[in-house]
Amino acid sequence: MKVALLASSFHPNLGGVEEVVRQLAHELQSRGSAPLKVTNRWPKDLPADEEFEGLAVRRFVFRVPERSWKQLGGALLFGHRTHRELCRQLRAFGANLIHVHCVSSNAYYALKAKRRLNLPLVVTLHSELTMDSSRLFQRSAFARGLLRRVLREADSVTAASRRTLADAEAFYGQSLVHRARVINNGSNPAEFDVALPYGHGRQYFVAMGRLVPRRASTDSCPRSRARESVRTICCWQGRDPRARD
User: Fold this and answer.
1) Is the pLDDT of residue 202 over 50?
2) What pTM was estimated for this model as a whole?
């Protein structure tokens, strides 16, 4: 099977979606079915084509017809070209499955490609409704409509947790039980076997996450300092005005 992975974000950005898709791509590759990796070209100075850890990565500026003139104008001017080029690359790759990770502007083009090329579509949900740092689905009618279309037209739906699936069903207004299942995210422990531990003078606790509202708790590190014998090392990506040095 030749799978095209369409993720909302990928390398060099860091996060849960990016890591899950990286792990999945490597697993598919190890089974002799290297996927085509497609993602949003953001920031726009990233290369359109790149190889990352032996994985082919294709980036597109996924403009969608939101209500602002800038977004709507960009979609009208460049959207058809993006759709056409995405379909061309899917054909050249020989894709027989489109797999969307995290519904965003990527899903808009995935739906169009599914319809044009008559390909099955799998959608994996990553708590978009409750954990998006920009509150996309609370502020955008377009995003909510897109998610409903995706849930209606997807051939299969997976979710990172039971809560994520329950939230999606409540939003959609009906059960997805006949074509949905929970598949928890994971990682490859073997990757830690070759990592050298940080040589600190005493025991330490490492907290890693994305430092934005609704993601990693900015209070977790200060609370963990209650044990003076254990040092806390916090590693964050992003910016949260509530954070303290």
Assistant:
1) yes
2) 0.84
In our burial notation (b when 16+ CB lie closer than 10 A, e otherwise), range 38-68 reads bbbeeeeebeeeeeeeebbbbbbebbbebee
**How many alpha carbons lie under 13 Å from residue 100 in its C-beta half-sphere?**
29
Quote the CA–CA distance of 31 and 12 in Å, as a whole number: 25
Most confidently modeled range among 127-131, 193-197, 204-208: 127-131
Average pLDDT of the chain?
A: 88
pLDDT of residue 245: 47
